[in-house]
Each structure stands twice: as structure tokens, then as C-alpha cells.
Specification:
This protein is of the alpha+beta class. 28% of the residues lie in helices and 22% in strands. A hairpin with a 5-residue loop joins strand 1 and strand 2. It is elongated.
Length: 360
């Protein structure tokens, strides 16, 4: 029954499906949530919906989850103490005979809430219209404290659509936008299907070792690192234009925005939304950037680190490709600092030194 209801909702072109239990847990989300909020389907399933709803809109969402628009512990206009947390104990369990019939118009829902959005065309939140109804959620097989089976409870089944229709530009560029997921030090964790097409790597190759900086052009590393630091302080990197190394050993310009994703109030990982740019757009950004920087450099070693080059006791990475790959293996196998030379392969210097000169 749920499957039929969801598939009919999914026919809507501009939106995603959301099923939220009476206590505020996301029971189901369609994969298209990623196109609107930037979160992957697996990031939100079985999490509290209040983690991704604007604080001011949480009481409104809580009211709409309740069959009579009157949830416990949440007097009108006052946010509940449990807002933002999922407490199974705070949900009141109802017997079916205490509730209106499921086909009652009383259980229809249509309301607006701002949801956390990781995409770079938003202000951090996206206003969504949720339209659907409360329906019994079967198959949860929950039990009460005394061990007896609990009856199915009402859950919100809704299609969520943005209030603002997408602009022509967004529609045109949406097909090329890809997303990557990183640890806090920027080590790649995942890449969506479009990213694999644009960059040519498999997820395993992206995660092979070191932070993601070994894929960044040496002349862009400082600029990216500065925005990385800004993101750790403010939660967002701002638009960052830089070159990524593709599998074919070519540089691809991208315009990216990185955002921190928090769980229980702590930063947990980074999501980066990236749009490929043509060579001319990238060159234009580089010219603007070089006006702000006191120096320019091609591969960045000496100017970037103000050190004599090559470093003593450090194998020259700009030798033949065979030696480079051998060096890559040894630097990774230490899993951190290389004893021989004291350069951490996952540092900015280590990342640049592991790159093959041929790519420049």
C-alpha cells in the first residue's frame, strides 16, 4: 500500500517524497532529495527530521505530525524542549479507535517549512511546501515496554516541493552538477555518478590515500586550503574555483561550494557541490584571483613553501612515472608521516610532491 502511494507521489516532477513517523524520524526519503537539499538519501533515513528543519519552523512541523495539530509538550508559539532531538518516549501512542478514519480530510496536510540545504544557490535553507496526509505506517513491529505489540501509528506521507520554481539557468546547469563527500580533513569518502563521469575515477580510486588535495592543482592548493579553513570556522567555504586532476591526467576547472554537515551539534563530514566550468571561465577566475595574490606560480613548490628544492633526503617526485608510483605506494603505506624525510604525505606539501610533473 505504501509502495503504491509513494510511486504515485514520485510521479511529481519537481520534488521529493518524505515519510516521517509520529516521533519525527525520517522513515523514508526518495533519492531525489539530493537534487533539492544536497543530502544523500542514506544521510537522512532514520535520522530526526528536526536536525534538518529551521529552528523557527520546527513547532509548525511538529504540529502537522500530530493528528489534531496539537502535539504534547509543545504549547502554541513555544518550541518544545525536545525540538531537534528524537525521543521515542515523547510520542503518545494512540489506538486506531482513538483516531479519525484514515480517509478523513482531517488528516490532509499542506504547510511550508524551511529545510537545511547544502546546495550553493541557497542561503543555507530552502523553503519547501509539504503536501500529503497522515497515514498509518504499517510494518514497524514496535513493542511497548511491557512487550506487547503496538498498533500502527500515523506518519506523514508528503511530497516536498520548492516554493520558488527553478530558474532556467539552474535547470540548464543542474545536469552537470556533481557532489562529493569528504572527511573533515577533505579526504574523499564518496562521489556521485555524475562526478565519476566528469572526473573519470571510481570511488575506490578517489579514496586511495591521502587527503583530496592530491587532486588539486598546485597553484590552487593555498587558495583551496584557505577556503577549507573558512568552512571549518563558519560552516561554509563560499564559492571556490579551482582545477581538479581527471583520470586522463587533464585539469578540469570546477566551481565548488563546500558545507559542513553536523550530527548532534558536531561537524561530521563535508559535502561539496561542484559545477564544471569551461577553460575560459576558469582562466577568468584565475586572473581575478592573481590580482589579490602577491605572487603567481606554475607548480608552486618553492614559492608556496619558501623552501630550497628539492628537499634533502626526499625522493624527487618529478622523475619517471614508474618511480613516482613506487614513491606513492611507500608514502601511503606509512599511513601518515614518512620516517625518512619528515614530510607527511597527506599535508599540502606531500600532496603536491606526489603529483606527477607530466600533468603540468
Amino acid at each position: 500500500e505504501h509502495g503504491m502511494y509513494l510511486s504515485s507521489l514520485s510521479q511529481a516532477l519537481n520534488g521529493f517524497v518524505l515519510v516521517v513517523t509520529s516521533e519525527g524520524l525520517i522513515f523514508y526519503s526518495s533519492h531525489t532529495i539530493q537534487d533539492y537539499l544536497g543530502f544523500h538519501q542514506t544521510d537522512v533515513m532514520h535520522q530526526s527530521v528536526f536536525e534538518i528543519i529551521h529552528t523557527e519552523d520546527q513547532p509548525e512541523f511538529r504540529r502537522n505530525l500530530h493528528w489534531a495539530h496539537n502535539p504534547p509538550h509543545a504549547p502554541e508559539g513555544e518550541p518544545s524542549l525536545e525540538v531537534g532531538k528524537s525521543h521515542g518516549s515523547s510520542a503518545v501512542i494512540y489506538k486506531p479507535d482513538q483516531l479519525p478514519p484514515e480517509n478523513s480530510s482531517f488528516l490532509e496536510r499542506s504547510f511550508v517549512c524551511r529545510f537545511r540545504c547544502l546546495l550553493d544557490n541557497s542561503s543555507g535553507f530552502l523553503a519547501l511546501n509539504l503536501q500529503g496526509r497522515l497515514k498509518f505506517l504499517h510494518g514497524q513491529n514496535k513493542r511497548s515496554e511491557d512487550g506487547s505489540a503496538l498498533p500502527p501509528q500515523l506518519a506523514l506521507f508528503a511530497i516536498s516541493t520548492p516554493l520558488q520554481p527553478p530558474s532556467i539557468l539552474q535547470i540548464r546547469t543542474k545536469n552537470m552538477i556533481f557532489r562529493t563527500k569528504h572527511k573533515l580533513d577533505f579526504t574523499p569518502l564518496a562521489c556521485d555518478a555524475k562526478g565519476k563521469i566528469v572526473l573519470g575515477y571510481t570511488e575506490t580510486e578517489l579514496r586511495m590515500c591521502g587527503t583530496g588535495y592530491q587532486f588539486v592543482h598546485a597553484a590552487d592548493t593555498l587558495y583551496c586550503a584557505e577556503n577549507h579553513v573558512r568552512m571549518m570556522k563558519t560552516g561554509e567555504s563560499g564559492l571556490t574555483v579551482f582545477r581538479l586532476l581527471t583520470k586522463e591526467n587533464r585539469w578540469k576547472w570546477v566551481q565548488a561550494n563546500a558545507r559542513l554537515v553536523y550530527k548532534n551539534g558536531k561537524p561530521e563530514y563535508i559535502v561539496v557541490t561542484q559545477r564544471p566550468l569551461v577553460e575560459e571561465e576558469g582562466g577568468e577566475h584565475l586572473r581575478k584571483r592573481s590580482m589579490h595574490l602577491p605572487f603567481t606560480f606554475a607548480t608552486g613548490e618553492a614559492l608556496l613553501y619558501q623552501s630550497t628544492y628539492p628537499l634533502l633526503g626526499f625522493p624527487d617526485p618529478f622523475q619517471s612515472k614508474e618511480k613516482t608510483s613506487k614513491f606513492k605506494k611507500t608514502s601511503c603505506s606509512h599511513g601518515g608521516r614518512s620516517q625518512k624525510n619528515g614530510v607527511d604525505p597527506s599535508s599540502l606539501l606531500g600532496a603536491v610532491m606526489r603529483q606527477d610533473k607530466a600533468v603540468y
